[in-house]
Amino acid sequence: MKRIRLIIADDHPVVRAGLQGMLASQPDFEIVGEATNGAEAVALVVALQPDLVLMDLRMATMDGVAATAQIRRQLPTLPVLVLTTYDSDSDILRAIEAGATGYLLKDAPRDQLFSAIRDVAQGKSALAPTVMTRLQTRLHSSGGDGLSVRELEVLTHVARGSSNKQIARHLHISEATVKSHLIHIFSKLGVTDRTAAVMVALERGLLSMETDRE
């Protein structure tokens, strides 16, 4: 059985201890490091090369969003699962735009957390049901024409100038899947190329100019 090597990043000792105890009950999880802020998380990730990072959002020195963005820049294939008490639209979107592969709330049931860790470690997305609902509502209300969360992730990387190969590596999917997502995006937005898709997405509020600076 392959063990999933984890780093926990959270500024509350009680939370870290609770997660340690909870995750220790699973034979395929191994905690290899703990960080009390985003800067420590980035340093630990570079030093220890874990399989996954459990990331809190609100931390001193460097918050979880900034740490996630930095981690994904240095190690593009390393998945980050956000585990937080905050579920506002801005928090969720900032985390996903920074490259978070999953987003769970700290009151999630143990089994949901365990499943999310295993899914994210395998390259799948893991979003809490309330988070998924918020994203879908935002997409529909902003004229997203039904873009899925994964399609929005692909479009975000397109806006950053990433190639299909880079997007595939970052999202742990094949280039053929990226192309399929782009075809669906073009169809839903009524465009025929990547540049037009990004422009329409910016106009409709699906993407922000901050995307380009990640």
3D structure, described in words:
The chain has helices spanning 13-23, 38-48, 64-74, 89-98, 110-121, 129-141, 149-159, 164-171, 175-189, 194-203; strands at residues 4-9, 29-35, 52-55, 80-84, 102-105, 126-127. The protein is an alpha/beta fold. It has a 6-stranded parallel beta sheet with strand order 2-1-3-4-5-6, with helices on both faces. Strand 4 (80-84), helix 4 (89-98) and strand 5 (102-105) form a beta-alpha-beta unit. The protein is globular, with a radius of gyration of 17 Å. GO terms for molecular function: DNA binding. One of its GO terms (biological process) is phosphorelay signal transduction system. The modification 4-aspartylphosphate is found at residue 56. Residues 5-121 form the Response regulatory domain.
Task: For this entry, give a set of tags.
Arc Repressor Mutant, subunit A, 2 domains, 6-stranded parallel beta sheet, globular, DNA binding, transcription regulation
CATH names the topology of the largest domain as Rossmann fold
Shape: globular
What string, H for helix and E for strand, traces the elements in order?
EHEHEHEHEHEHHHHH
The CATH architecture of the largest domain comes to: 3-Layer(aba) Sandwich
Fourth CATH level, the homologous superfamily of the largest domain: Response regulator
Indicate the mean pLDDT. 85
* Gyration radius, in Å: 17 Å
Kindly name the structural category: alpha/beta
Query: Helical stretch count?
Result: 10
* Uncertain regions spanning at least 5 consecutive residues: none
Name the strands of the widest sheet in spatial order.
2-1-3-4-5-6
Total E-strand runs: 6
Q: Roughly how many Å apart are the termini?
A: 36 Å
Percent helix among the residues?
40-55%
Instruction: Indicate the proportion of strand residues.
Output: 5-15%
Described by strand count, sense and barrel closure, the largest sheet is: 6 strands, parallel
**What's the number of domains?**
2
